[in-house]
Amino acid sequence: MRCIAFANLKGGCGKTTVCFNLVLGVLERRKPQNGKKYVYIEFDMGAGGGTVLWNPFFPLNSAPTLKDYLAGKAGLEDVIFLCDRYDEYGYFAFIPGGKIGPEDFGVLNSSHEAIDKLDALISFLEKKCELAFVDCPGEAGFSGLKDYYFFLLIADEVILVADPRIDSVKALDNLIDIALLYEIRVPFLVLNKFNVRSRRHREIMDYAVKKLGLRELGAKIVTIHADKKVEESWSLMPPEPTFYFDRKTSFSRDILRLADLVLGKPVKGRLKPSQKIGLLWKEVRKKLRVKWRKNRTREKYFDLDLDFGEIEGKYEVQ
Ligand SMILES: Nc1ncnc2c1ncn2[C@@H]1O[C@H](COP(=O)(O)OP(=O)(O)OP(=O)(O)O)[C@@H](O)[C@H]1O
Ligand SMILES: [Mg+2]
Fold first, then answer.
1. 271 C-alpha vs ligand 1 centroid, how far in Å?
2. Does residue 243 have its Cβ closer than 6 Å to ligand 1?
3. For the sheet containing 2-7, what is the strand order?
4. Where are the domains of the chain?
5. pTM for this one?
6. Is 12 touching ligand 1 by the criterion CB < 6 Å?
């Protein structure tokens, strides 16, 4: 199974929109083989936007969700669902994030139990799914960057999503660091809500290439048009995925283009979350000296309230 996360700490840039619609786009291009599914994992446990697109009537407050699994209150079988909103999406499995509250903040920390749960989640999904799409939180998330240190452990690849604003691009800087530390590939930056006629947007694209070192990373920029149909589809009652709502929009065409690019980059081999956390320790010094990025300081990584000592003791550095 290949696991792709859609990430940016900045809210509202289109992670959920792109991630959800891309599952539909990929399904249109290629069905999973051998009875397997594509799974959408809603790691954003605050917004529930993915759940609304998948099943607007899902009882998020009472049904078992990913949050309950991580808190030890539900089994994996209980939190994976099929998509019954649309018949043609029978290959689409869904893990709803659930609504996390202040009492649940401890769920998202990098304790041994939580990392073991991520290992179990991946092993479970390996048997059932060919591709996993992870919808990550934005600033509505809880402890922000700290959460990303935890759940990005499950990803093989991160697709960065930004809208054409400086702060949206800048917010990706830290995520690239985490991806490098965990040896997670960064194949694409999706520049969403893009207007090719806007000089400002084109300038921001150039800025992103330089500021984030995309060439050195080997990451390609993929633009997705700003499209009124996207807003229209979200404002329906209940909302619909744009790709389903109108296949002929510029957005839907861009989604298919992204689907082709994603399918054209197969990934071989994967590390378990617990192996990735081990990598952090082996690689951290080396990676922080990486030449192509300036102004990196080691302190930056330790300026987080994570119990790294506990992790280091448990997970052998390879
Ligand atoms: N290509 C697009 N064109 C026009 N509007 C868009 C496009 N993509 C997303 N939007 C709009 O942006 C809004 C935010 O999108 P979305 O919820 O997917 O962002 P997000 O990054 O997942 O946010 P959060 O961080 O809160 O989870 C939506 O209401 C949607 O209508
Ligand atoms: Mg979202």
1. 31
2. no
3. 81-82, 92-95, 37-42, 129-135, 2-7, 157-162, 185-194, 220-225
4. 2-272
5. 0.90
6. yes
Q: What is the Cβ-side half-sphere exposure of residue 267, based on CA atoms within 13 angstroms?
A: 21
- Indicate the DSSP class of residue 202: H
Q: What does the pLDDT look like over 8-44, one tens digit per residue?
A: 999 999 999 999 999 999 999 999 999 999 999 999 8
Termini Cα distance of the chain: 23
The model's pLDDT over 51-102, given as tens digits with 9 standing for 90+, comes to: 999 999 999 889 999 999 998 899 999 999 998 787 778 899 999 999 887 7
* C-alpha of residue 315 to centroid of ligand 1, in Å: 37
Consecutive H or E run containing 5: strand 2-7
Domain 2-272: give its CATH code.
3.40.50.300
Residue 39's H or E segment, with its range, is strand 37-42
Ligand closest to Cα of 225 equals 1
